[in-house]
Here is the input.
Amino acid sequence: MKYFAKFLLHLLGWRCVYEGMPNEPKCIIIGVPHTSSWDFVISWLYYTSAGRAANVMVKKEFFFWPIGILMRKMGALPIDRSRGANIIRQTIQKIKENDYVHLAIAPEGTREHTVRWKAGFHMIARETGIPVYLGSFDWGRKVITTGERFELTDDVTADINRMKDYYRAKGIKGKHPELFCTDHQ
Here is the structure.
C-alpha cells in the first residue's frame, strides 16, 4: 500500500516532505488548512506513503458493517458525538487505551471560513503529555508535510495565534484559498 500511495500522490502532482516525521508512538498532527474533504484523502495517502498510520476521530455511527472495517483500517477511531457526550474526554481515553496514536486534527473544525480555531487539540495534548506537530497540505505548491514539533504553553489563544503566524509565514494555501483564515482570534 505504501508504494501505491506514493504513486498516487506523484500522479496527482504532490511532493511529500518526510523529514521531521514524528518518532513518538503518540502525537497530535495538526492538519491545516482544512477547506475540502479532499484534505483527508491527500493526508491519508501521505501518511500511508510514509509507511505510517494516522488516526482521525469519526462519529461512531459510521462504524457499521462493512464500512466500519474500512474505517478502522484507515485509522478511524469511533467517537460518540451525541448530545452531552464529551468528545475531548473520549479522545483522551482513546489515546490512553492505544499504544500507537498519531491523531490528525483540523483545529479549524470546519471546511468553512472561520477565524476561531478550536482548542480541543491543546487540551488533549496537555492532558496526555503528547507532542503536537504542525502538518500542512499546501494546495498552492502541492506540498504535504507533518511539519515541525510545536511547543505548547499555558496560553491557548497565544498558541493558536503562533500557529496561525507559522502557517501565514509559510504561505500555505487551501484547496479553496478563500476559506482558509489565519487572522488572530
Notes: The chain is about 35% helix and 20% strand. The CA atoms of residues 133 and 148 lie 5 Å apart.
